[in-house]
What does this fold into?
Amino acid sequence: MIDVGPDFARVNAELIDAYRLTAPANVGHVLDHGFADPCIRPVYRGARAVGSAFTVQIESMDVAAISKAYELAGPGDVLVVAAGGDRKFACAGEMSTFRSIRMGLAGLVVDGSVTDVREMEVMNFPCFARHITPLVGRRIGEKGSVRQPVIIGGVLVRPGDLVLADDNGVVFLDPAEATRIIDELLEKERKEDELRKAFWSERGQAVPVIYS
It folds into this structure.
Protein backbone atom coordinates (compact mmCIF):
# COMPACT_ATOMS: atom_id res chain seq x y z
CA MET A 1 0.00 0.00 0.00
CA ILE A 2 1.47 3.34 -1.10
CA ASP A 3 1.02 6.10 1.48
CA VAL A 4 -0.19 9.23 -0.32
CA GLY A 5 0.15 12.58 1.42
CA PRO A 6 -1.98 15.67 0.74
CA ASP A 7 -1.37 17.91 -2.23
CA PHE A 8 0.92 20.87 -1.57
CA ALA A 9 1.60 24.41 -2.72
CA ARG A 10 4.24 24.72 -5.42
CA VAL A 11 6.93 27.39 -5.38
CA ASN A 12 5.59 30.39 -7.27
CA ALA A 13 6.79 30.83 -10.84
CA GLU A 14 8.48 34.18 -10.22
CA LEU A 15 10.70 32.71 -7.51
CA ILE A 16 11.56 29.71 -9.69
CA ASP A 17 12.57 32.08 -12.50
CA ALA A 18 14.73 34.07 -10.09
CA TYR A 19 16.54 30.95 -8.93
CA ARG A 20 17.32 30.08 -12.55
CA LEU A 21 19.70 33.06 -12.35
CA THR A 22 21.73 31.71 -9.44
CA ALA A 23 23.34 28.45 -8.34
CA PRO A 24 23.87 26.16 -5.33
CA ALA A 25 27.41 27.46 -4.88
CA ASN A 26 26.12 31.00 -4.39
CA VAL A 27 23.53 29.76 -1.91
CA GLY A 28 26.54 28.23 -0.14
CA HIS A 29 27.88 31.73 0.48
CA VAL A 30 24.68 32.65 2.31
CA LEU A 31 23.46 29.47 4.06
CA ASP A 32 25.11 26.45 5.68
CA HIS A 33 22.12 24.12 5.66
CA GLY A 34 19.87 22.39 3.13
CA PHE A 35 22.77 20.95 1.12
CA ALA A 36 22.53 17.27 0.22
CA ASP A 37 25.45 14.92 0.72
CA PRO A 38 27.91 15.80 -2.10
CA CYS A 39 27.96 12.12 -3.10
CA ILE A 40 24.63 12.87 -4.83
CA ARG A 41 25.95 14.01 -8.18
CA PRO A 42 24.65 14.90 -11.65
CA VAL A 43 24.78 11.80 -13.83
CA TYR A 44 26.21 13.91 -16.68
CA ARG A 45 28.04 17.24 -16.82
CA GLY A 46 25.91 20.32 -17.29
CA ALA A 47 22.73 18.96 -15.70
CA ARG A 48 20.75 21.65 -13.91
CA ALA A 49 17.36 21.54 -12.20
CA VAL A 50 15.13 24.14 -10.53
CA GLY A 51 11.63 23.38 -9.32
CA SER A 52 9.29 22.26 -6.56
CA ALA A 53 10.09 19.04 -4.72
CA PHE A 54 7.65 16.18 -5.30
CA THR A 55 8.82 13.72 -2.68
CA VAL A 56 8.87 9.92 -3.07
CA GLN A 57 9.96 7.15 -0.70
CA ILE A 58 10.76 3.71 -2.11
CA GLU A 59 12.03 0.57 -0.42
CA SER A 60 14.74 -1.63 -1.97
CA MET A 61 13.58 -3.10 -5.27
CA ASP A 62 9.95 -1.97 -4.91
CA VAL A 63 9.64 1.16 -7.08
CA ALA A 64 5.82 1.25 -7.21
CA ALA A 65 5.77 4.64 -5.49
CA ILE A 66 7.47 6.09 -8.57
CA SER A 67 4.47 5.06 -10.65
CA LYS A 68 2.14 6.72 -8.15
CA ALA A 69 4.25 9.87 -8.33
CA TYR A 70 3.76 9.96 -12.10
CA GLU A 71 0.01 9.91 -11.55
CA LEU A 72 0.12 12.93 -9.24
CA ALA A 73 3.13 15.11 -10.14
CA GLY A 74 2.79 18.12 -12.40
CA PRO A 75 4.82 20.28 -14.76
CA GLY A 76 7.75 21.98 -13.07
CA ASP A 77 8.00 19.41 -10.27
CA VAL A 78 11.33 17.78 -9.46
CA LEU A 79 10.90 14.16 -8.35
CA VAL A 80 12.92 13.77 -5.15
CA VAL A 81 13.32 10.08 -4.36
CA ALA A 82 14.63 8.48 -1.17
CA ALA A 83 15.59 4.85 -1.73
CA GLY A 84 15.79 3.81 1.92
CA GLY A 85 19.53 3.18 1.77
CA ASP A 86 19.32 0.78 -1.17
CA ARG A 87 22.07 1.12 -3.79
CA LYS A 88 21.46 -2.06 -5.77
CA PHE A 89 18.28 -1.30 -7.72
CA ALA A 90 17.73 1.57 -10.15
CA CYS A 91 14.45 3.42 -9.74
CA ALA A 92 14.63 5.38 -13.02
CA GLY A 93 16.05 5.02 -16.51
CA GLU A 94 15.37 5.76 -20.17
CA MET A 95 11.71 4.68 -20.29
CA SER A 96 10.72 6.65 -17.19
CA THR A 97 12.62 9.65 -18.56
CA PHE A 98 10.39 9.63 -21.64
CA ARG A 99 7.41 10.01 -19.32
CA SER A 100 9.12 12.68 -17.20
CA ILE A 101 9.81 14.82 -20.25
CA ARG A 102 6.32 14.38 -21.66
CA MET A 103 4.90 15.48 -18.29
CA GLY A 104 7.12 18.55 -18.15
CA LEU A 105 8.93 17.50 -14.99
CA ALA A 106 11.92 19.71 -14.15
CA GLY A 107 14.27 16.96 -13.02
CA LEU A 108 15.02 14.01 -10.79
CA VAL A 109 17.06 13.76 -7.58
CA VAL A 110 17.61 10.25 -6.21
CA ASP A 111 19.27 9.28 -2.95
CA GLY A 112 19.79 5.86 -4.45
CA SER A 113 20.45 4.49 -7.94
CA VAL A 114 19.45 5.16 -11.54
CA THR A 115 20.38 3.63 -14.89
CA ASP A 116 20.55 4.64 -18.58
CA VAL A 117 22.57 7.76 -17.84
CA ARG A 118 23.80 8.22 -21.42
CA GLU A 119 20.20 8.24 -22.60
CA MET A 120 19.33 10.88 -19.99
CA GLU A 121 22.21 12.98 -21.26
CA VAL A 122 21.07 12.69 -24.88
CA MET A 123 17.57 13.78 -23.79
CA ASN A 124 19.06 16.56 -21.65
CA PHE A 125 16.96 15.50 -18.68
CA PRO A 126 18.45 16.73 -15.39
CA CYS A 127 19.16 13.77 -13.10
CA PHE A 128 21.15 13.64 -9.88
CA ALA A 129 21.84 10.38 -8.08
CA ARG A 130 24.09 8.70 -5.55
CA HIS A 131 24.71 5.52 -7.58
CA ILE A 132 24.44 4.16 -11.13
CA THR A 133 23.54 0.50 -11.68
CA PRO A 134 22.19 -1.76 -14.46
CA LEU A 135 19.88 -3.70 -12.10
CA VAL A 136 16.36 -2.32 -12.28
CA GLY A 137 13.70 -2.24 -9.56
CA ARG A 138 10.21 -3.75 -9.83
CA ARG A 139 6.70 -2.37 -9.38
CA ILE A 140 5.68 -4.67 -6.53
CA GLY A 141 3.33 -2.17 -4.92
CA GLU A 142 3.75 -3.08 -1.26
CA LYS A 143 5.74 -0.20 0.22
CA GLY A 144 6.53 3.44 -0.28
CA SER A 145 5.02 6.89 -0.10
CA VAL A 146 4.53 10.07 -2.10
CA ARG A 147 4.03 13.67 -0.95
CA GLN A 148 5.48 12.92 2.48
CA PRO A 149 8.70 14.33 4.00
CA VAL A 150 11.82 12.35 3.05
CA ILE A 151 15.51 12.40 3.91
CA ILE A 152 17.75 13.07 0.91
CA GLY A 153 21.47 13.13 1.46
CA GLY A 154 20.98 13.90 5.13
CA VAL A 155 18.49 16.73 4.49
CA LEU A 156 14.82 16.67 5.47
CA VAL A 157 12.90 17.56 2.31
CA ARG A 158 9.24 18.49 2.42
CA PRO A 159 6.82 18.51 -0.51
CA GLY A 160 6.97 21.93 -2.14
CA ASP A 161 10.51 22.81 -1.07
CA LEU A 162 12.54 24.58 -3.72
CA VAL A 163 15.11 22.32 -5.41
CA LEU A 164 18.24 23.88 -6.93
CA ALA A 165 20.84 21.56 -8.44
CA ASP A 166 23.78 21.75 -10.82
CA ASP A 167 27.28 20.31 -11.33
CA ASN A 168 28.29 21.43 -7.84
CA GLY A 169 25.48 19.65 -5.99
CA VAL A 170 21.93 19.89 -4.70
CA VAL A 171 20.34 22.26 -2.19
CA PHE A 172 16.78 22.21 -0.83
CA LEU A 173 15.23 25.46 0.40
CA ASP A 174 12.09 26.23 2.32
CA PRO A 175 10.19 28.64 0.01
CA ALA A 176 9.98 31.32 2.70
CA GLU A 177 13.74 31.22 3.24
CA ALA A 178 14.32 31.11 -0.50
CA THR A 179 12.27 34.29 -0.83
CA ARG A 180 14.20 35.98 1.99
CA ILE A 181 17.65 35.43 0.46
CA ILE A 182 16.98 35.79 -3.27
CA ASP A 183 17.82 39.51 -3.50
CA GLU A 184 21.16 38.90 -1.79
CA LEU A 185 21.89 36.05 -4.17
CA LEU A 186 21.04 38.08 -7.27
CA GLU A 187 23.19 40.99 -6.09
CA LYS A 188 26.07 38.59 -5.60
CA GLU A 189 25.50 37.22 -9.08
CA ARG A 190 25.59 40.77 -10.48
CA LYS A 191 28.90 41.58 -8.79
CA GLU A 192 30.45 38.29 -9.87
CA ASP A 193 29.35 38.92 -13.44
CA GLU A 194 31.15 42.28 -13.41
CA LEU A 195 34.37 40.68 -12.13
CA ARG A 196 34.06 37.85 -14.63
CA LYS A 197 33.66 40.19 -17.59
CA ALA A 198 36.62 42.28 -16.44
CA PHE A 199 38.82 39.19 -16.06
CA TRP A 200 38.14 37.86 -19.55
CA SER A 201 38.24 41.32 -21.13
CA GLU A 202 41.77 41.81 -19.76
CA ARG A 203 42.76 38.72 -21.73
CA GLY A 204 41.01 39.81 -24.88
CA GLN A 205 38.60 36.90 -24.71
CA ALA A 206 34.84 36.48 -24.61
CA VAL A 207 33.31 35.18 -21.40
CA PRO A 208 33.08 31.37 -21.72
CA VAL A 209 29.63 30.04 -22.51
CA ILE A 210 29.46 28.03 -19.26
CA TYR A 211 28.25 31.23 -17.60
CA SER A 212 25.32 31.81 -19.95
Observations:
- The longest strand covers residues 49-57.
- The chain has six helices and eleven strands.
